[in-house]
Amino acid sequence: MAEERETEVIHSWSAPRSLSTSLMYSFAQRDDTEVVDEPLYAHYLRVTGVDRPYREELLSKMESDGNKVVNNIIYGPGGKKYRYCKHIAKQRMPGLSNELMEKGKHFILIRNPLDILKSFHKVVPSSFHELGLADLVSIYSELCAAGKSPPIIDATELQEDPEAALRGLCEDLNIPFQASMLKWEAGPKSVDGIWAPWWYKSVHKSTGFVQTDKYRQPFPALLYDLLEQSLPFYNMLRSNARRKRFPKLPMPSLPVPANEKLLVWVGDEILPRDSAMVSVFDSVVQGGDSVWEGLRIYSGKVFKLEEHLDRLFDSAKALAFNNVPTRDEVKEAIFSTLMENGMFDNAHIRLILAEWKPPVYDNTRGITLVTATTRRNSPNNLDSKIHHNNLLNNILAKIEGNNANADDAIMLDKDGYVSETNATNIFLVKKGTVMTPPADYCLPGITRATVMDLVKMENLVLEVRRVSLSEFHTADEVWTTGTMGELSPVLKIDGRVIGDGTVGPITKRLQNSFNKLTEGLGVSSLKMVQEIKIKLVDCE
Ligand SMILES: Cc1ncc(COP(=O)(O)O)c(C=O)c1O
Fold first, then answer.
1. pLDDT tens digits, residue range 114-170?
2. What is the per-residue pLDDT across 189-227, written as a single tens digit (0 to 9) for each?
3. Hey, which of 19, 175, 233, 414 has its CA 20 to 30 A from 257?
4. Are 434 and 427 in contact (CB under 8 A)?
């Protein structure tokens, strides 16, 4: 009589479109493993009533009583050492026997929802329920609570370095790696579920894990909200993956180790250290547009609190911040944060207020400038050639422009010559000669250099020299340059109308040649060129 041996069950749990079928094919190559494709699918369709084009066929051919599936198929007798069950997390419906999770080895396969959503939506309309990421997190949490923390593997790792990823997974599952897992034959397989014609078209073309194109299809805007809902679940699982695709840089050792579990006030809430973030769109990130105070606690009291708040509010006023919280609101934030952290003595507070000011460019009708009293930095202090984002020097000038109802402000150098505006370089035309200040006290703008080349190509005379304000006031034409605003005609400076108050002929000529240049020049990936060609054909 053949010796009966217990088959050990390996459960893979994932969202759909996470390379779970590829991974099943990979395990099917092992000489010691049999695989089962989504054994709980019929159970899921029966219990939820979810529709699929193959629903009736599937219900007639597959066992739809989940507990029978668990007992007879998943944990039923087997012929090989291992049985690999591919599961989609949402198919684990309530009411299934506890054995499902208590027995066997489990692991979690994750994939960035950015990739899942695009792929899923091609077959069935996506929804939060359909992705089942919350179910995947529940499975992870339950297994952890039961003391069986499952390994988590990211699908991208399988694509980037299949052997290393599979070796790592096998090690985590405590099974030997087999090199046969790296390749399989193309085409449908006998183990495929009957839904394969709908879902497995591309995996049937594959013979192994392959790296996808670096540059992929544009992400559909209609899936954006779903992406936002799904990402926190993916991120939570990813942060618990044993092998990190992009391992975090080692944390510098903290001077006060207890600060690792710090709670931080951001906006109107208290958050753990790792969640305490500001947006990349915030002005403090974009231009250093913020003011701050450092305060200290001694014996349960904030030392010189009122003095620090006076300076904070004065600084915010000097930078013309809007929507500044009240003194009471700031105090509440300070004391709530201290209480939550249990910090009553010898603690240091870093208090930061930030703000945002929008840029303005009108390249058809032109813009108005005023001269700011704030000087552009000299290389003695902070070299304007560095394109740093500590923009307060320019922001102060911009505030002067805002207060004078102008679009931007001209900034002078330390000797009173024009350097640039708070956000752009500046040019003038006088009697057919184009002039711009040297890049000593201004950013050597890339658009500035491009326009200087165009001026020469248009056979115009270009002078790069110190230009005084009165020369700008009395110019025939003035424009500013920058990547954001391109060439913006200036029609008024400090109340003086420039030329005849309309966009001048040289400005228009250079705007045209600039537009032509931007159509032709530039760097793109081959993929982008193909996409734009497809779009252009679509429009025909
Ligand atoms: C102060 C300042 N001047 C000029 C420019 C224009 O530079 P570019 O033409 O390289 O965009 C910028 C752009 O960021 C700027 O911040």
1. 999 988 877 778 889 999 999 999 999 999 999 999 999 999 999 999 999 999 999
2. 999 999 999 999 999 999 999 887 777 778 888 999 999
3. 233
4. yes
Burial class (CB in 10 A: 0-12, 13-18, 19+), 294: exposed
Give the number of the atom of ligand 1 that is nearest the alpha carbon of residue 446.
Answer: 10
The residue contributing the CA closest to ligand 1 atom 5 is 424
pTM to 2 decimal places: 0.78
Tell me: pLDDT of 4 over 90.
Answer: no
Of 409, 414, 464, 413, nearest to 442 by C-alpha is 413
Q: How far is the CA of 413 from the centre of ligand 1 (A)?
A: 16
Indicate the CATH number of 8-239 among 3.30.950.10, 3.40.50.300, 3.40.30.10, 3.30.420.310.
Answer: 3.40.50.300
Centre of ligand 1 to C-alpha 443, Å, is 6
At the topology level, CATH places domain 260-354 in D-amino Acid Aminotransferase; Chain A, domain 1 (3.30.470)
> CA 96: distance to chain centroid?
38
Side chain identity, residue 283: S
> Which pair of structure tokens corresponds to residue 327?
């003194």
Which distant-in-sequence residues (6+ apart) come within 8 Å of 430 by Cβ? 471, 474, 475, 476
Which atom of ligand 1 lies nearest, measured to the CA of 450?
A: 9
